Amino acid sequence: MASREPHYKSKITPYVFACWILAAFGGLMFGYDIGISGGVTAMDDFLVKFFPHVHERKLHAQEDNYCRYDDELLQLFTSSLYLAALIASFFASKACTKLGRKPTITMASTFFIAGAFICAAAEKKWMIIVGRILFGVGVGFANEVGIFIANLVNYATVMIHPSGWRVSLGLAAVPALVLFGGSLFITETPPSLVEMGRKEEGREALRIIRGVDDVDAEFDQILAAAEQAKQGKHHFRRLFKRSSFPPLFVGTIIQVFQQFTGINAIMLYAPVLFRTLGFNSNASLLSSVITGLVNVGATFVSIYAVDKIGRRKLLLQASCQMFVSQMAIGVILSTHLQATGTMSKGMAAVVVILVCMFVMSFAWSWGPMGWLIPSEIFPIETRAAGFAFAVSTNMTFTFVIAQAFLSMLCHMRAHIFFFFSAWIMAMGLFVLYLLPETKGIPIDQVEERLWKKHPVWSSFYKEEGSEYGMA
Known about the structure:
This protein is mainly alpha-helical. The protein has 22 helices and no strands. GO terms for molecular function: monosaccharide transmembrane transporter activity; symporter activity.
């Protein structure tokens, strides 16, 4: 409740504005890499150099449309980032605690810069895989706008022969260089300095950030929070208590559902998918730019609607729209895209429109809600540990989809869209019966007002009582 929150003096300073810019470049760094991989894997020059058998397969009309890009190493080029990010994220949390956020940001950007240069200069397959792994480590230590910019870059660099793919991958170093340079000048966060026992430096950092001298009240609050964090040991152990199961299950299953909507299969491999439908290289990249633009625009709808409409209504509406879109795509491909040949321009355009409808609904619902809801459902005592589980689950299943999609497309053909549709139906039922509405509920009251009053999840609290969540 807003009225209970203390009011601290502060003003917008150039330093704070610079921090906002750096934060944006952090998201751009990750989003750019998500968007760039699909476009690069569709570029002929890239395939000729590293995957000549895939390129040769594309050129033969008798080859199956759905299997043109089916190659485990080609998929690993995309998916290796997420596996590396998953592993690195566990070390990143320790680095933040022991070293502070500032050195961790420097490390993240350094890994990302190294990955960009190795990928751009790659001459062997192992070099592009190593570069992608370094990207992933950078991501693990450090999104929509990044994807859109990456699609624009791919659309431009496809004209650069034979090294357009080098430009696309190498430009990933730009946001990382900005982040690296900024990390040399920003101060460490006050809570981090307090955690490391550097209290006076923490107070001074708070003065710089707030732009005022009177920060005593807020600094006392930081000291109290740091002391409480020291006393709250065994967060992960408490996460596996019976009363912690509802938020743990909901927070992690949302991440599974988010990936099994099929969104990353489309966003990671959009140019490849459109080439499969019969678009030429330029048209497929342009189509991915359009979907990226829709993705960015629809995200603003979520920002406006989430606190007006509520989380559940947005998710339910989007589940219906995504289900209809995926089913329609599956039906069209089943009837109009044979093993060889291409679709008519009219039907291909309809598929692009349906993909945009799907991306639009995801971008104002399961995309941002997949991160927002897990941040709202855990009690204070298990919030950090619970959210860490959610992030790890997301990276794990992003890796699974990225590694498997092209093979699934080859073996399941158009039925892959029916597969994702079935998951979307399950998601809608989950929201309807198992997901509580978190709109307007403070974190310190989440257990009492959310879980203990839910018709299904309340049973998990009857035996243990109110063991956690007491502020």
